[in-house]
Amino acid sequence: DTSLAEVNSFSPSMPISPSSMINQYKFEDEPELRDLFITVDDPESHITAIETFITYRVVTKTSRGEFDSSEYEVRRRYQDFLWLKSKLEEAHPTLIIPPLPEKFIMKGMVERFSDEFIETRRKALHKFLNRIADHPTLTFNEDFKIFLTAQAWELSSHKKQGPGLLSRMGQTVRAVASSVRGGVKNRPEIFTEMNNYMETFSQKINVLDKIAHRIYKEEREYFNEMKEYGPVHTLWSASEEDIADSLKGVASCIDKCCKATEKRMAGLSENLLPILHEYVLYSEILMGVLKRRDQIQGELDSKVDALANKKAEKDLFSEEIGKLEDKVECANNALKADWDRWKQNMQCDMRSTFTNVAENNLRYYEECLATWESFLASQTVDLHVEEDSEDRP
């Protein structure tokens, strides 16, 4: 399957040296062009009679004129990030909103509210806000500005000013009606291609995500076994005087390889796993965006069909169709522009991630190989010394 060839293809002229590999890809943020900088840090636990939750400090520095100050500091909990994401989806239904980390974590990975879990979530929330800040449209969303600047009580008050019940019901009815109608008749070919691409991408990225988690789990099991394996040789050396040095050498090698394995695991958990899972979530978001675009297209198609059946109301329907045509065109243009941007970012992320994993693997195996080669060399020297002493009269 070559559908992901663009993602993992490398130039044939790529240098062999691992260090020059990573230097071939420079992903510069062009900081001189940025005017909005956001940091998510300082997680803080809150315990009440009803619940336990974590808040994070969100620090914003900006030079934009629409902000009243150049720096803001607020505290936000996970539910606030969920609110922001839903508001962005509501305001920009055919733009690709960055994913949030899931509310519930995978069993067997980390415990909820552990330091590891909190740090993993903090990094994901930090990336979420900075992806929005770097987006040419989302960065100017009014709810995003309020999220960054409003104090807790102000944000709570703003949340209550959401769409009314009738508005929400209308949106639900339209969505259900659109889904019942079936496939879109007049979908442009480019969006059919996008849909096919995302179906393949979703399948591949989900497989990669599952395999990566399985590799990490097996690596952890191997690491735990090695931690027990080394000390056994040390204990054994105490009862084998003739080969004590060799057994201690083996124990030392295992200990060094154990530490190298721990570093490799850290690289997987910090670099590979989060990126793969982020794009698993992205694949779900993209499929949702394409469905919302189809719903807008379906609404237009239904009006065109209704116009053909109701000649008496032609003027009224013509006006509605004109508005829907504009809406579809805006949706199509927004999605096409965002699609190209997302695809470029995805390919950069994948190249960077897999190159980083490859270099970490090279360093790991080189370190382990050097450790055992050094041990073998020392044993060879010892054997030569013993042979020489036996040959002497």
From TrEMBL:
UniProt xrefs under CDD domains: BAR_SNX7 (cd07666), PX_SNX7 (cd07284)
Coiled coil spans: 307-334
Biological process annotations from GO: autophagy of mitochondrion; endocytic recycling; piecemeal microautophagy of the nucleus; protein transport; reticulophagy
Organism domain of life: Eukaryota
One Pfam entry name: PX
Any Gene Ontology CC annotation: phagophore assembly site
Single GO MF annotation: phosphatidylinositol binding
Residue stretches making up the PX domain: 34-155
Record keyword Acyltransferase present: no
Protein's recorded name: Sorting nexin-7
Source organism (scientific name): Aptenodytes forsteri
